[in-house]
Amino acid sequence: MKLKVDGKDVPLNEFVEKFISGSITGAITSLKGIKEDWKKIEIEIEK
Predict the structure, then answer these.
(1) How far apart are CA 46 and CA 33, in angstroms?
(2) How far from 19 is each of 4, 33, 46, CA to CA, in Å?
């Protein structure tokens, strides 16, 4: 897992990686039409 904010890498420890990954994976896989054998999830957020 990689996290970048304004182009800068943000280091993540194992707990944070698992927390973010699990939260996003759970939310995405519960959506209609998303298969369980997905390969990559990309999220881009702008404000």
Answers:
(1) 25
(2) 17, 24, 22
Interatomic CA distance for residues 43 and 45, integer angstroms:
7
Instruction: Please give the model's pTM, rounded to 2 decimal places.
Output: 0.74
Interval 1-47: pLDDT, tens: 999 999 999 999 999 999 999 999 999 999 999 988 899 999 999 99
Chain-centre distance for alpha carbon 6: 17
In this predicted model, what pLDDT tens digit does every residue of 11-23 receive, in sequence order?
A: 999 999 999 999 9
Rg (CA), the chain: 12
